[in-house]
Design goal:
Largest sheet: 7 strands, mixed
Helix content: 25-40%
Number of strands: 9
Strand content: 5-15%
Radius of gyration: 23 Å
Distance between the termini: 28 Å
Number of helices: 15
Shape: globular
Strand order of the largest sheet: 3-2-1-4-5-7-6
Length: about 400
Amino acid sequence: MMRYIQPMTITGMLRHITLMERKLTHIDCFAGPGGICTGLHAAGLQTLVAIEYIKSCCDTYSANHPEVHVIHSDIRNVNIEQLSPFIPKEGVDLVTSGMPCETFSTAGNTSRSFYDDRQFLFREGIRIAEICNAKMILFENVPGITSKKAAKDSNHLIVDILKKELADAGYKNYIEVILDATKFGVPQKRNRFFILACKYEDWWLQAPELHKKRVNVGDALAGLPNVTANSGIEGTAYTDTHSDYERLMRDDAFWKRENLSKQAITNHMPMKHRESTLKRFSLLHQGESLKTLFDRYSGEERKKLQAARILPKKMFIKRNYRLKSDEPSPTVTSHCLDEFVHPIYDRALTVRECARLQSFPDSYEFTGGPYIVPHINREVQDKYEQIGDAVPPLLAYAWGEQIKHIFKINKK
């Protein structure tokens, strides 16, 4: 029997097909060098605008995502006139907001004692979402944000204020979760707190659940040649050592970066080290750090090493950790140049090696800023800082795939 299909049903079918064919649109707040955009792009989302304060990050972002309109500005100064030319009439699907995490971090001794305007920058993500009529907002930060108070003597937590202001803006439907990056293919022990909020109260929301085999440092650095400290000679040719992870970092089809594909390795220049520093590195076994050496050598022996500048006068807990080949690395931070020693060779990691630990594809070039710059300069981030502050692209990719799924099952 032939069935009669009403015109409204056909219209609904066409609307459904159009929805499935179009790319979800994205605005990238606190964009950094483009970690979130890189992962979402691989998942098939379209980033329309990126907002970033640090010029060197903007330069790296634009070089790798030339299709995105990058606004170099303090986000608090970004207005509707700057955004409206790039916003579809129906609004955008997603705004991401990974505001600076220093004030929430527990890594430093005094970082959480700061109470300043940085901890309220989440309001800018909400403001941009309202301007762009965003259907969803994805917030990212360190887990320490969940216990940080609004002021020293306050009983209010920043995260509770964030959730209240989300609700006030119409984003009452939300989920919150802490994700372990190692479960998403990132070769790094990095936990991050996320809130995914939606303006539709009846939509089903769920965090990504990809429980992949953990990738270790040896797998992450496969294919990258050794470079000799102080040689000034950059490694550009791959070796014949391979891993599934190494192949993924070189798979520009997966990353949808075929037009930016590079044949040679880039950003793989060795750092310069004093001979005494190289001697210090030679004393380290995998899994040991500067703290280990201070524990191992004491009394006159330590004084001799300090006199020779092999050991510094002061012990820094998070300094000179020799990575373990058979485990994921510790969290890659903006201080990764000082924090990590290569698992095999007596030198710090190169920019490309740090990028591998963060899951940036090999074709990603960190063009903005110098290789290193003093951390007192907050107007510029060197290449190591850019990498350390970024969201791992593979973690962003997992969110991109999950958000596509959420749109697919919730759209009428």
